[in-house]
Specification:
The protein has 458 residues and is of the alpha+beta class. The chain is built from 8 helices and 18 strands. The relative contact order is 0.18.
Length: 458
């Protein structure tokens, strides 16, 4: 769909004035600056060269689509089976590595000095995307614009709105609009362990369908809708059949996110305005907000966004071992945090973006520090602070790369509460069969409130 564009409407003079007053650039970069993409920069805007120390290699195109075998259950095999940890960061030795750690990681090492550790492996710049995404990013670099004070987009082509970001807001929009493989369906599990590690699973069937992939796609009809999200609970039985439907809009100030919930017990569909910002996450026992899903989602309008700059950090990466179908959920879910012996950390360059709650706005997180991987535009770590300025929650995304379909994605997400000692892990699929279906075919009529009742039958 190289020529298809998702548009939020004409850019009026009043919107122009609003954006200029907010200090946001209307177009990302010039043609000469955009020419760096695919040359000194990767096609999506990362630095192609390695670092001076040689600890981050040059990006040479990422893994090939046949990097390793696909299992009968639909899991991608580990393309680096012989890799072993180079060293392990612990509470006892973290000070010698602290320049490459986030405050949240250091807090976790101190909170769980005997069990939380970071096994560090060789850095592998495995990520790649289809050529059509590279082409779209090249066009977006000069044509995608911020509207309504930076809270919406105009002229977005497919994915990665600002491959050469000029400020923090553009960088976070890259996370929101990053390439996820188009439309997909997945079967995943979530756990919210007690302090002692005991837990019960909640299982979901999630569908994410981008409007440009719909069988009945119409730019006039779907212009401000980025994607449809449907989440059906399949387990436990007391929640089974409940369904959440979201119409995610590009400009959520002009046209707020629309959400509905079907309650299987009541057999009723209701609007769900709480599915946004710091509204409670589905079956999360109060351990995450709505906008914690996918590390961060939704409208950015309640925060001021500052682009701090680039850093080299040890972040979760190439988490094939953690995503293995050979593991059981009991192998992963432990007291305090997931089993860190199954994790893999690598040194990568990240964009640091600081989000500070605007005066007069409300959210339980007064500040969030984002650390966004330069090769994929996925948020890798986000530190969350409360209204007193204290570090409260630490989110880590254990990423992997589905090389067979050229999709960078999260194997699972964790959100640790430093105060309560509890946490949430979501996106696990180790015990599921064929958990992912890409190029999921759908029509818009499947994502209407009227269609919810049928999809939620127990």
């Amino acid at each position: 769909m190289n020529k298809k564009k998702l548009k939020t409407g004409a850019l009026t003079l009043s919107l122009l004035a609003t954006a200029l007053m907010a200090g946001h650039a209307m177009a990302a970069v010039s043609e000469s600056e955009a020419a760096k993409l695919g040359n000194s920069l990767t096609p999506v805007g990362a630095e192609k060269a390695g670092n001076a120390a040689g600890t981050i290699p040059e990006w040479t195109g990422g893994l090939p689509t046949d990097a390793a075998a696909i299992t009968p259950d639909g899991f991608v095999g580990d393309p680096y089976p012989g890799d072993q940890p180079k060293f392990t960061i612990t509470a006892q030795n973290y000070e010698q590595y602290q320049d490459n750690l986030t405050p949240g990681q250091i807090a976790m090492l101190k909170r769980y000095p005997e069990t939380y550790r970071l096994p560090v492996f060789e850095t592998r710049r495995s990520a790649a995307m289809p050529q059509r995404i590279y082409d779209a990013a090249q066009r977006n670099a000069t044509q995608t614009k911020l509207v309504r004070g930076g809270n919406g987009l105009e002229n977005l082509d497919t994915a990665i709105a600002f491959p050469i970001p000029q400020d923090g807001l553009e960088a976070v929009w890259n996370h929101i609009t990053r390439y996820r493989g188009g439309s997909a369906r997945r079967v995943v599990a979530q756990a919210t362990p007690q302090v002692n590690g005991s837990y019960s699973l909640v299982k979901f069937v999630d569908e994410v369908v981008y409007t440009d992939s719909l069988a009945d796609y119409n730019p006039e009809k779907h212009g401000n809708v980025l994607f449809y999200f449907k989440q059906q609970v399949t387990d436990p039985s007391r929640l089974a059949g409940n369904v959440l439907l979201v119409h995610e809009t590009l400009d959520q100030v002009k046209e707020p996110r629309m959400a509905w919930i079907y309650n299987a017990g009541q057999r009723r569909v209701r609007r769900a305005p709480q599915v946004a910002y710091d509204g409670p996450g589905t079956a999360a026992d109060g351990l995450r907000t709505s906008d914690n899903l996918d590390m961060f989602n939704g409208a950015p309008d309640r925060y001021e966004w500052k682009l701090v700059g680039k850093k080299e950090l040890y972040i979760p990466y190439n988490s094939y071992r953690l995503d293995s179908p050979k593991l059981k959920y009991d192998d992963i879910v432990k007291a305090g945090h997931i089993n860190q012996d199954l994790t893999r950390y690598e040194l990568h360059r990240v964009w640091e973006v600081e989000a500070t709650l605007k005066k007069g706005e409300r959210h339980i997180y007064a500040k969030r520090n984002f650390f966004i991987d330069e090769d994929t535009w996925q948020a890798a770590i986000i530190d969350h602070y409360d209204g007193r300025g204290s570090l409260w929650r630490v989110a880590e995304a254990h990423s992997t790369y589905f090389y067979d379909v050229q999709v960078p994605l999260y194997a699972m997400e964790t959100l640790y509460d430093l105060v309560s000692g509890r946490y949430l892990v979501m996106g696990m699929k180790n015990e599921e069969k064929n958990p992912y279906v890409y190029n999921y075919e759908a029509s818009s009529h499947q994502y209407t409130p009227a269609a919810l009742r049928n999809s939620g039958v127990r």
